[in-house]
Write a structure and sequence with these properties.
The complex is a heterodimer of chains A (233) and B (499). Chain A is of the alpha/beta class and 233 residues long. Chain A has two domains: 118 residues, Response regulator (Rossmann fold); 108 residues, Winged helix-like DNA-binding domain superfamily/Winged helix DNA-binding domain (Arc Repressor Mutant, subunit A, Orthogonal Bundle), CATH 1.10.10.10. Chain A is built from nine helices and twelve strands. In chain A, β8 and β9 form a beta hairpin. Classes of the chains: A alpha/beta (233), B alpha+beta (499). Chains A and B meet through α1 and α8 of A and α7, α8, β6, α9 and α10 of B.
């Protein structure tokens, strides 16, 4: 796992958070970080914005050009536009400073697990919590019971579930779901579709287990681990 | 062709003589009409060239010559035929009237030319006043034009209120304050006018050495125009008119200086505001990195020391305070970004539950909808609306006794979505019900260590207002407070969503 950050205290903090679970290598600048991604092939990159030599956005794009390694961005600003830009540039998740160590650990774990499972992509069935999405049969069951979805709801759920754990921006979801469809100003209804979908798949639409709102940015589908943790409570 | 006046007189006298001499040669064959017409021609041409006096003189001379040379008996001023008298009288009358009319036409032409020139002058001056790069230069140009045209020793334009001038001239101050003109006489006394026009009643024998005229723009006195000449100033009617017109330009020039200064000031204020924003943003940014480290270290120590948890919580509180300050400053500067979109209430409440669950701990948050089956939607900014509700719920949590639940009720009320957050806290005294929305205000009974700087409600109300919503307080029946957030509701077109 690679930490790219110019601030030594933050590098140390990340280092400590993962000292029991991963080998952490550190880079103080963006270019050094990009070189290390190539040389060491880390399973996760934790990238701080505001590096001295290049912008986080540039680092993100440079890594994404040839690597699928999950990127978790740390930022001290809490501007939603910035998050959206970074996620669209290929970052997988985002944490705003000051974050708690447990939050960092949880996000990192989710990203690494997702990367591990998507390595064997092409799976026809995705199981998260009591939801089973069968991509070949185009069917969704909850607790064994078949749920009826409209075509748009189906596509929305498919995009969300196949990338569970990733924060997907409104723009990304829209372009994935409405690709090839006739639409007028359908983009404004994305949030309404999500609300409808929630009412179908969630036990309680205002305490969602599966589709988690990232305010101002987009939506994230819970990973299998998160969903079962929510089950426990 | 420019001739001196006396040259013209000589020329036309010679012409009259020449015509007389020429006609004498043919006297026998000439009729009286020929003589009359030829003389008239000379008189009219002479009037055109030399003016009315020359014309009338020529007609007088022609009268005598006509009588002497061409009316019998020749060589005398006597006339045999009484009809000849009528010819002579008509001739003189016609030539005099013609000369007079020609003269009047010429004079009107001259006046028209002068007027046109005046208009040109004013237009040029007006253009200059507006075009000169520096307004101060325009003012100086107007002053110089007045001085040169009215032939006075000095013309000064006083900008500003004159009160704080180093050598405050009391008369100047009076003119500035009353908006009326004043004169200073050679003997040191003053004359005050009742209007902006210079007074006419200079006592006989006295001379005015200074004129002070107020400069008005849209009913406000913006400055004073001062004319000075130790030899005395006495302006004719036309000159006064000229002065009035030019004073107006001077007033406009002063107004322009004022506006330019105001614009500069506004620019400076905007720059300062941007600087303040940048500073706040960078302070909050720079604070977050050390806070992250503090939190991480405290987290590390958790297993060994219980107090580490307090450190973490306090770091979070500090972070919230900085974020609140930044937001409040942005809200007051109108610089907060706004993304109004169609949003589902489910989504908003879901995000709220997720956000506050950590803060509430064991406390229950009861959420009820007026109608569970229909999906409520509205047009608002999701992030700001969430922020408001989080603030309200956290506030309710802070001020109500432990164990009592917080109630959140959502209804559709006409064109509004109403979110009511109700608690069983102490409520707010009637006198304080508006003041609680002011920044840094904390109700008198507030718990000293409630972890807030009193910014939450003021931020909430401002955030509601920028998205065309409202935020109100009302006491709750059987004790407690109710805060109502109203946001614009929306209706989905029947065919917008496939089902």
């Amino acid at each position: 796992m690679l930490v790219i950050d110019d601030e030594l205290p933050i590098r140390r903090a990340v280092h400590n958070a993962f000292r029991d679970t991963a080998r952490v290598i550190e880079a103080g600048t963006g270019s050094q970080g990009i070189d290390l991604v190539a040389a060491e092939r880390p399973t996760l990159v934790v990238l701080d914005l505001g590096l001295p030599d290049m912008s986080g956005l540039e680092v993100c794009r440079a890594i994404r050009a040839w690597s699928n390694v999950p990127i978790l961005v740390l930022s001290a600003r809490h501007a939603d536009e910035e998050k959206v830009r970074l996620l669209d540039a290929g970052a997988d998740d985002y944490l705003t400073k000051p974050f708690s160590t447990s939050e960092l650990q949880a996000r990192a774990r989710a990203l690494m697990r997702r990367a591990a499972t998507s390595a064997g992509q092409g799976e026809a069935r995705i199981v998260i919590g009591d939801l089973v999405l069968d991509l070949t049969a185009r069917s969704l069951t909850r607790g064994g019971e078949l749920l009826h979805l409209t075509p748009i709801e189906w596509d929305l759920l498919r995009v969300l579930m196949t990338q569970a754990g990733r924060t997907l921006t409104h723009q990304y979801l829209f372009s994935e779901v409405w690709r090839g469809r006739q639409f007028g100003d359908a983009q404004q209804y994305l949030r309404v579709y999500v609300a409808h979908l929630r009412r179908k798949i969630e036990a309680d639409a205002i305490r969602p287990r599966y589709i988690i709102t990232e305010p101002g940015v987009g939506y994230r589908f819970a990973t299998a681990a998160e969903a079962s943790a929510a089950d426990g409570t | 062709m420019t001739l001196r006046p006396w040259h013209r007189w000589v020329l036309w006298t010679i012409a009259l003589g020449g015509v007389t001499f020429a006609m004498l040669a043919f006297r026998g064959r000439l009729d009286k009409a020929h003589v009359t017409l030829l003389y008239l021609l000379v008189i009219l041409l002479g009037t055109v060239s030399g003016g009315r006096t020359l014309g009338l003189s020529l007609s007088g001379a022609a009268f005598v010559l006509f009588n002497w040379f061409f009316l019998r008996p020749y060589g005398t001023l006597r006339i045999n035929d009484p009809l000849d008298w009528s010819v002579l009288v008509v001739f003189v009358a016609v030539s005099a009237v013609a000369a007079q009319m020609l003269h009047r036409l010429q004079r009107e032409a001259v006046v028209a030319r002068q007027r046109a020139e005046e208009v040109n002058q004013f237009a040029e001056l007006g253009a200059e006043t507006l075009n000169v790069a520096r307004s101060e230069d325009a003012l100086a140009a107007v002053g110089e034009t007045i001085r040169a045209n009215l032939h006075v020793a000095a013309c000064e334009i006083h900008v500003g209120n004159g009160v704080d001038a180093q050598v405050a001239d009391p008369l100047l101050v009076w003119v500035r304050q009353n908006g009326c003109a004043a004169l200073r006489l050679a003997d040191g006394t003053t004359r005050l006018a009742a209007s902006a026009d210079a007074p006419d009643d200079v006592p006989p024998g006295a001379t005015a050495v200074a004129w002070l005229l107020p400069l008005h723009v849209r009913g406000h006195v913006v400055g004073v125009l001062e004319l000075r000449d130790a030899r005395g100033i006495d302006l004719a009617h036309a000159e006064r008119r000229f002065l009035r017109a030019l004073s107006y330009y001077a007033a406009l020039g002063i107004e322009r200086i004022r506006l330019v200064a105001a614009a500069d000031r506004a620019d400076a204020l905007r720059a300062a505001d941007r600087l303040k924003d940048a500073l706040l943003a960078s302070v909050s940014h720079d604070l977050r990195t050390p806070l992250t480290t503090i939190k991480a270290l405290a987290h590390d120590m958790r297993s060994r020391d219980d107090r580490a948890l307090v450190i973490e919580e306090e770091a979070d509180r500090l972070n919230r305070l900085v974020a609140d300050l930044l937001d409040l400053s942005r809200l007051q500067g109108g610089a907060i970004p706004l993304h109004i979109a169609l949003n589902a209430v489910d989504d908003l409440i879901g995000a709220l539950v997720q956000r506050v669950s950590g803060v509430l701990g064991d406390r229950r948050l009861d959420i009820t909808f007026q109608d569970n089956s229909t999906l409520l939607v509205g047009r608002f900014d999701f992030v700001h609306a969430l922020r408001i509700l989080v603030n309200l719920v956290e506030n309710a949590h802070k001020y109500s006794p432990s164990g009592t639940p917080i109630a959140l009720h959502v209804t559709r009320d006409g064109g509004w979505l109403r979110f009511t957050v109700a608690d069983r806290g102490p409520g707010v005294a009637e006198a304080e019900r508006e003041r609680i929305f002011e920044p840094f205000y904390r109700p008198s009974g507030a718990i000293a260590d409630s972890g807030s700087a009193g910014l939450g409600l003021s931020i909430a109300r401002r955030l509601a207002e920028i998205q065309d919503g409202t935020m109100t307080y009302s006491p709750r029946g059987r004790g407690g407070s109710e805060f109502v957030l109203s946001l614009p509701a929306a209706d989905l077109p029947a065919d917008a969503i496939e089902s």
